[in-house]
Amino acid sequence: MAAGYMGKLLFVNLSTQEIKEEAPDESLYRDFIGGYGIGARILYDRQKAGVDPLGPENILGMITGPLTGSPAIGGARYQVVAKSPLTGGWGDANSGGHFGPYLKFAGYDGVFFNGISEKPVYLFVDNGKAELRDAAHLWGKGTYETEDTLGVEHKRARVICIGPAGEKLSRVASINTHKGDAAARSGLGAVMGSKKLKAVVAKGNKEVPIADIEATNKLRTEHIEDLKESGFLERFHQYGTGGHGDMSAHSGDTPVRNWGGIGVFDVPDVSGLNKDKVIANLDKRIGCWRCPAACKGSLKEGTGEYKYPAGNHRLEYETIGAFGANCGNTNVESIEMASHLCNSYGMDTISAGSIIAFAMECYENGIITKRDTDGIELTWGNHQALVAMTEKMAKREGFGDILADGVKVAAERIGKGAEKFAVHAGGQELGMHDPKVVGHQFAGMPSAAMYWMNSTPGRHSQAFGPVSFVTHLNNAMGTCMIIFMWRAARGSYVQRMMTAVTGFDRSMEELLKAGERIANMRHVFNLREGLNPLEHYIHPRVCGQPPQKDGPLAGITMDIKEEAWWHLGALDWDRRTTVPSRNKLLELGLNDIAEELWPPEKMPRMGPPV
Amino acid sequence: MFKRIIHMYGLPYEITDQREVEVELEEGASMADVIAAMKAKIPALGGPVFRTGEDRLEELYKFNVNGHLYFDGMDFQLHSGDRIALLMPVTGG
Ligand code: SF4
Fold this sequence. Notes:
The complex is a heterodimer. Chain A is α+β, with helices and mostly antiparallel strands. Chain A has three domains: about 10-205, Aldehyde ferredoxin oxidoreductase, N-terminal domain (Aldehyde Ferredoxin Oxidoreductase,  A, domain 1, 4-Layer Sandwich); about 240-420, Aldehyde Ferredoxin Oxidoreductase Protein, subunit A, domain 2; about 445-600, Orthogonal Bundle (Aldehyde Ferredoxin Oxidoreductase Protein, subunit A, domain 3), CATH 1.10.599.10. Chain A is built from 25 helices and 14 strands. In chain A, a hairpin with a 3-residue loop joins strand 10 (about 175) and strand 11. In chain A, helix 2 runs parallel beside helix 22 (about 510-530) and helix 13 (about 330-345) runs parallel beside helix 15. The longest helix of chain A is centred in the C-terminal third of the chain and has 21 residues, at about 510-530. Chain B is an alpha+beta fold. Chain B has a single domain (about 1-85), classed as Ubiquitin-like (UB roll). Chain B has one helix and five strands. The longest helix of chain B has 11 residues, at about 30-40. Chain B is globular. The mean pLDDT of chain B is about 95. The interface of A and B includes residues 317 and 438 of A. Iron/sulfur cluster (SF4) binds near residues 76, 287, 288, 294 and 480 of chain A.
């Protein structure tokens, strides 16, 4: 077995309460690296097409990568995979914190669940052993309390869990850890809730095997030196991703008023979102496992209008964007409160903020009124209304119940033409980067077609075209996109780190090929579900149809068909059906899938038709 | 000659607190002409936004001219009546 891995996966059947341990073939690790790479291969092999995302047959996986828990900086991540209840297709989500490394210290690279438990349970993974335990005392509790309670019951353990939103099957529910880090996209918290699985607790002192520890430590030092020299460490430690909310609200980057507004006119004064306001109530800086940047923060108790508890996480950019300019709001304390509600109830802040923006636009246009909203005046920028409705949504109370499954479903429930304000791609609310500001430099950056064509549509951080191979590789390795990929990806660093940790001596080209294999694996999962990304819905505003009349994005329209044409050609996927070519699948070693997608009757033949 | 106000959207306050600049340009002004005229009015743009000692954009900065984005290495000819704005790089998160 290659180093970097614990060499074992857990399979838990929640219906029968049976737990099995498997030692996968080395080729699974070599070819799919880890994280959602391994997740995609396992779900494709062990799950049928067409299962109900909230039913017993959907498999929910939580998987680390080879660099998770290693000395590689930012090697703190794990990923969650399942069929998404939000998009109906491939779903993945990614989170930092401490759980990923601890799952490995407990002896496992990943854990997969199927079935549905009769009663609420949690999985306790303890130094090479795993057992399901009763979670009746935790059901109904928020994520902070769940983490605290389990932390007392299991000293030196780390916990991931859902909150009431996941229990109540909100399709925008997240899986949380570290009181504010979340695997939030794709609604996978609802999958966990549907299985009556409240939490996973990991504890142990097993060491992650490292092929060449000396080389690995040297590479860590090299990375730290680079981070210090460039000033990145200091800058990022100070504000994290919360440092540019004001500028982005005006630059055209952050969507404004549900993607229909213009920052400089609709939120002319963005001083409330300034970086120093974002850290004004900071208690201390915190970070993921062994990360020298510690780019996150923990706030003191809210003592102003919004009384959130001490420990509420400092805001990240996506949350500032979603509950800020996208709702016409610049009151940072209200965003902190909304973020706290999302984190404690277990809801994705990107989706939740986008849903509030959608509801505000429906309200402003008379599609819904105070009578529908339980008396809450959802006008642009009304921060009290924003917080009140976020709480209702988290609890599925009153109008919040209508909103709690994302904008697409909410628009269907509301009717009256509400769908014209439901900004989503393939069912999921989009990340807070307007692709129009990037223009046709779309290859690796947010572009309209990236949101559209992604196997989990709406995600903003997985890039596009062949550049996505790099991000898939990064995610599969279990590393942080910011500190590992942005600052270390130059030259041969990634390849040297992977070789030092795993002992597989591979070129960068081979590693990128693995990233490409993962891109194909996620995609063929969707093809088998009958999903063609070219048929995904994407809201026309995202593409600048019609173009904005003024401001930074004036006149800009994205040609998503042209972008998709390029993307499909670059990946060697059919430009109409999006099926990967047989040659591509064979080149990637996905021979079984080549056989499935290209049976003899589908192969081009010479001569007259038979 | 014609006068044009160029908006600068999302520019960090650390560079300048000005949000627009009025410049005088010849018909058919190129990107370098526009940059030179802007720099003459706001020298602080030299370095962070425009390359030091050159009339060129820094990487990832761009102009929006009538709905088309122009990065360093691209060029345009600006006429009176054209709309132009300076845009910042996208930041992550
Ligand atoms: S840079 Fe921030 S998000 Fe990334 S590993 Fe470090 S603390 Fe976590």
